[in-house]
Amino acid sequence: MRRLTLIRHAKASSPLGGTDFERPLSPQGLQEAPVVAKAFAAQDDPPDRILSSGAQRALHTAQIFAAALHYPPEEIDTVPDIYSGYDTTLVNLLQWQPDDIKHLLLVGHNPAISQLAQYLCAGTFNFLPCTVLQLQLSITQWCELSEACGAVLYHDYPR
Question: Is a pLDDT exceeding 80 seen at residue 15?
Fold first, then answer.
């Protein structure tokens, strides 16, 4: 069995003067992310690997969760395809993960992150900023990842 935790980045500031990729977390996102991360960390062990979009808002969210989970922030892997990819791109990325990874945490963007969750759970999920969805996957190797192989273990978002 494998576990996959999907997180949409926390609330970002409006793009004023910079690129979308450079958008930082908003004051609201900076307030909510540590609260959601702490609640998640209270019920789970650190992941074996954290993958994040390289966009500033996603990477900062990943760093906040890493700190709450006692995961070394310098070990967060940034993957360009998470920023620009579709749900099918994310499935492919996950299918190529090493089999020694039992729990993977991925921080990304909508619509791809919610589409990925729907594909894996055959359900509908509205990923508001800083939503966390952890899935138990009925696979023994990442290459087996397929439609409807996931069951929800944990779901949280800022309130």
Answer: no
